[in-house]
């Protein structure tokens, strides 16, 4: 129990410190009777004991982590791995981290993209726990000095298989284990469900109507690029089109689509696979990632010769994709004739709809967001609180932030003239592009997420607002 309390306290402290760091303060809110309930936040942030009691009372589905620390200490080590793995799957975690520290073992889950400490176990369990994971993952338990990779399957409560990719790594205080949950038959989300604004969605669907050309999705690792691409592919799937995807790894099963797993060991790289795909009479090709100049060149050529090609690049924003392609050696006239549009994206946590509370942003937060006094006065901005349904994080689920750049005539002129990224951005904004920060701000004002969450993902949305005003 003590360790659950520690974890919960840690989460609560984090929320508290985030709150004060971004200067969010609670505001009185009208209640149903028309009066005000006063500052709701302190009242709604329960004490640890209170929240634990609530979490225990809630059913397992909404609070799979209730009593987690106590459970961990009461089961034999042999069953502990199953418990940690099963609870991770039930809580919707994407990864499990088992980390040996000097004094103990920290167990953390990645929930909605954020690592959250779940419990701390005594140091004496370290060797037994790590060995158990390694046995289950088919790794060499005697080898402790080298990193190893494997796969582990545990049984869920209903007897279903829950599979993890396991990676071990020697660290100062022992072997660290990371387990990535492999969701086998995750349903492909629709484009509509990913959080695009109406105008961005329309623009993206416009790109997808083309018979040939290149569509790029850009953003850092973990920004949801492959989910967007899979949803895009699913939206164009029909018996009349031959769609081939090259993926590493295959994340969604796409009915009616030929999906190929890249296998570098067997020399099936993006480049070699793409060459082969072009002899397979494709209409639409998804290249998981353009990693090098050669892949970029072949992909751009293919998109000029009657194929619709979708791919990803690692750039921060949409206009930078153009300069990245140029840096990769793709000629500007090729980019100009092939590129239809670029979608830049990030993932942001959504506020838990069961416990979000109205907040008045501090002056500094208001300035960073670029909000006017009028906007603040006329809109309710919400912040996180914490309840059993969101594991006391205040957030539940994620939503995309988007910047959808269409290669319009003026953007195209910038590309052909080899203009700098600022000029491309200005032209795109003038032609109606909504920047990541602006899209995020709209989601804050709609109460979908908090100001602090937006500022975690996009540092200064105010600058983007200014750019837009300048461009207009
Ligand atoms: Zn909640």
Describe this structure in words.
The protein has helices at residues 2-21, 40-44, 48-57, 68-74, 77-91, 126-136, 198-208, 225-236, 270-277, 293-304, 318-327, 332-338, 363-369, 373-378, 409-416, 421-430, 436-445, 451-457, 461-471; strands at residues 25-26, 28-30, 36-39, 95-100, 104-111, 114-122, 148-155, 161-171, 174-182, 213-218, 243-247, 258-261, 284-287, 308-313, 339-351, 357-360, 381-383, 395-406. It is an alpha/beta fold and 472 residues long. The strands form 4 sheets. The chain has a 7-stranded mixed sheet with strand order 12-11-13-14-10-15-18, sandwiched between helices. Strand 13 (284-287), helix 10 (293-304) and strand 14 (308-313) form a beta-alpha-beta unit. The longest helix has 20 residues, at 2-21. Bound molecules: zinc ion. The site of zinc ion has 8 residues, from loops.
List keywords for this structure.
seven-stranded mixed sheet; alpha/beta; globular; 472 residues; disordered N terminus; binds zinc ion
Residue share in helix: 25-40%
Largest beta sheet: strand ordering: 12-11-13-14-10-15-18
Structural class: alpha/beta
Number of strands: 18
Q: What number is the mean pLDDT?
A: 86
**Counting H and I runs of at least 4 residues, what is the number of helices?**
19
Strand percentage lies at 15-25%
Uncertain spans, ≥5 residues at pLDDT below 50? Answer: 1-62
Q: How far apart are the first and last residues' alpha carbons, in Å?
A: 58 Å
Summarize the main sheet.
7 strands, mixed
Bound molecules: zinc ion
Using only CA atoms, what is the Rg? 24 Å
Oligomer: single chain
Overall spatial form: globular
